[in-house]
Amino acid sequence: ADVGYGVRLTFDGNYNDAVYTRAPSLPAPAELSYNGIANIDATGQRAPYAPKWALTVTPSWDFQIGPDTEFYSYAQYSYTSSYGTGVTQSIYTQVPEQFNLNLRAGVRFNDGKYDVSLFANNATDEKNIISQNLLSAPSRAGVTGYLGRTVNYSPPARYGVALRAKV
Question: pTM of the entire structure?
């Protein structure tokens, strides 16, 4: 939506109600397999890697500062609700809700042929989880033994200058 004076507000959203409609025999989550339960009926449980909400709001401001020169800036703030990364919902594979902020401000010259900008990706240095898994080893009793968890995080805050030219 154009607010006026070069100010624009963009909103993106996703609602995802992904659940198993029929899953009568999936591997039990770790907290149940510890007790010898190998499979569960996961019908009605949330599907893996399916956050219910993913929302982004991006205010931006652009204006001409000369005949062929334009200033631009934006702040992109995103939110993702919690979700599980395992085939079945487990307390050990839950990713908490996450937030992220990216910033950019720059100047375009010669009708956009050249662009110089300052940026901050993950500006607040959030330690967001990209993926996580349990390390497992099957035992002779048919019950899975868990050795630990691997977690991959988003990159830390990055700040810099970008120079671009269209040739």
Answer: 0.81
